[in-house]
Amino acid sequence: MATLRYPAHGTEHTFTITPLSATPAMTPAAPSARARRSRAEGAATPSTPVAFDPTSFVTALRRSEKMRSRIPSDDPRQLAVVHVASTSRRAATMRPQYAGALTIVTPSVIVEGAHTADIKAARAAGARIIDEGFDGKALLGVDSIADVTRICTLLAKRHVGSVTPNFLRRFGHTPRSAPARAWAHAKIRLSAAWKITKGSAAIRVAVLDEGVDTSHPALKAAVVAQRDFIGDKGNSAKPDGNDAHGTACAGIILARGVKAPGIAPRCSLIAARIAMDDGSGNWVFDDYATADAIDWCWRNDAAVLSNSWGGGAPSDAISRAFGRARTQGRGGKGAVVCIAAGNDQIPIDFPGNLNGYVTVGASNPHDERKTKSSSDGENWWGSNQGATMWLLAPGVFIHTTDISGPSGYATDGYTNTFNGTSSATPHVAGAAALMLSANPNLTASDVRILLSSTAKPIMRQSGWTKELGHGRLDVGAAVAGAKKHA
Amino acid sequence: MQRYFYADGKRHDLDAVGDRVAIDARGAASTELRDVVRALPVASTLPSGMVIVERSAIAKGDYDRLSSAGLVQPVYRYGESLVVLMPEVRVELDQDQHGAALDAVNASRVRAQITDNTPERLSLRPESGKAEDALDLANFIYETARPAASSVRMIQVVPKRGVQK
Fold first, then answer.
1. Which of A164, A210, A420, A434 makes a 20 to 30 Å CA pair with A76?
2. Closest residue of A to B82, CA-based?
3. CA–CA separation, A316 vs B105, rounded Å?
4. B7/A316 touch (CB, cutoff 8 Å), yes or no
């Protein structure tokens, strides 16, 4: 066993290191999301080993020209693994290394703020310049790992800005695996709401989307009206080939059965097809058709309109149709209009940026706002933010209905990985449907205010913010509040 | 010339997309240009029988014939979306706005047919069949009569909101 010493943050750190070639052929796997949370709560870290071959690892690294400059040969003995059992002078605590992760010492040293004389001294001690970076940074190569501590010590004594070994860090990919069980219903306390109501058939929820598989076994009993506003299908809102989005949205609200039950499984569905695929993976909207669809929905007694779509140029035709739904729907009590905030972690776009509606952002299983760096592993999208943000609702790993066959998100008519503010919005639409089932006398404004006043504050918020709105949906509290409302 | 439209009481600029045009394929189906349109490589399929194609994919002679037949409409960009304007205007009216809106229609340089006329709404089609004329008419009515809304029909191609991977 050898040691590695270097200064950092004013403290000298000492680590035990062993040759990479001596690393066991099996290393612990990267943890599951569940395990990561368990660890954060103090539980033991599970370790399911996975294969690790040091020679293959080095060979793979050296496919990069940049890596070859730091790692001179394919021999894994030239590299060393840091053992995280730290004996630094600051704290000699035993910290478990992230499972599956390796911190590897290379025969190279990073130096910053070195004068010419310092570099000359390092050269005299056997170092060479591999690379010069920005802001006075240089990467020095040495002959072996044993020389790393020597060069670090030499340059530290010469009081350069900083000098540290150049570590390579190997991390396991964060697996995008869905939680084993549906999490969203428990998080928003749906069981408390269901003690009051599972919905009323008189409450109609409109899903305006790219079509809904209205013959899906879990949805067909809910359908009371459907129409195609963008295509030529007349009184059918069925989607084209691989358009699975609307079916997933509808299922979150209204699915019957036990496999992926909706939030309001006794309410009714109005399906309005307003978008079509353009053949290149984009949505096509006709603003007049969309406005007509909105008007058709509220005139057909939709109590709630769920809109998991947006972007593009604003349209008064659409805005005014939403306005009519909100003020003239339900015989003047108003239809509740829920609109997705969008998934680009940018300012909310049209129509979510319209004032006076229920604009919905996304949260994750850890009650965080969904961002590209939140702890759910979906690092390619984040919830939009802005002045119209009303509340958040679950938006990752959502269990719901899917179109059947190979064109869907999955292949068995159900998916457990639906996501986006597209999935958060129907959660709120379903909650609004339950609230109106519990108390049909509520106005659209009453529902909107109750959704905000019963939302659970998250991420230590002390009031409304443009990222979190009023907090995360609590359907249990919202339906209880609706029931009590005079 | 900068094209624009009104929404929410504000003026919004449209950027011309010169390398693409929208073709009325349904309209062409009953003309001698049917085969010309069928042979075009389609970039996007739109409702109402419209398609977006690369401008460079259309031979000059064919383009001129399609234009003369009123089968070509321009394509614009608004943010990330492509916008195709259609030769149709919808004017939405609040109380006491109907007369002023009709006066504006009559005063416009764009001659238009009134296809729907109720106390709450006017629908108009420019006689030229050109979407740019519809846009000019919609803007003129809004700037002159200030109705609740005056907008040209837009078809928008928007990136999908889904984020499945």
1. A164
2. A312
3. 19
4. yes
Interface test with A, best of B123, B156, B157 (most A CBs within 10 A): B156
In chain B, which among 31-90 make CB contacts under 8 A with chain A? 42-48, 52, 78-81, 83, 88, 90
A54 falls in which pLDDT band (50, 70, 90)? confident
- Give the pLDDT confidence of A79-116 residue by residue, as tens digits: 888 775 433 333 332 233 434 456 788 888 888 888 88
Number of residues that make up chain B: 165
Q: Can you tell me the distance from the alpha carbon of A302 to that of A288, in angstroms, rounded to the nearest whole number?
A: 19
Residues of chain B with pLDDT under 50: none
Can you read off the two tokens belonging to residue A339? 């609109």
The dihedral sign for the CA sequence A357, A359, A365, A366 = negative
Residue of A232, A233, A284 to mutate when probing chain B, most B C-beta within 10 A: A284
CA distance A56 to A375: 31
pLDDT of residue A25: 61
Beta carbons of B7 and A313 less than 8 Å apart: yes
Interchain contact, A283 vs B160, CB within 8 Å: yes
Band the pLDDT of A413: cuts 50, 70, 90.
very high
Please tell me the distance from the alpha carbon of residue A110 to that of residue A387, in angstroms, as a whole number. 45
> Within 10 A of A23 (CB to CB), how many other CB atoms are there?
19
Global pTM value: 0.73
State chain A's mean pLDDT as an integer. 86
Residues of A with CB under 8 A from a CB of B: 176, 230-231, 245, 276-289, 308-317, 319-320, 340, 342-343, 349, 378, 380-381, 409, 417-422
Catalytic pick from A245, A399, A427, A470?
A: A245
> Residue A104 and residue A18: Cα distance in Å, rounded?
10
Q: What is the mean pLDDT of residues A393-398?
A: 96
Q: Chain A: nearest CA to B137, how far in angstroms?
A: 16
Q: Which helix (H) or strand (E) holds B62?
A: helix B60-68
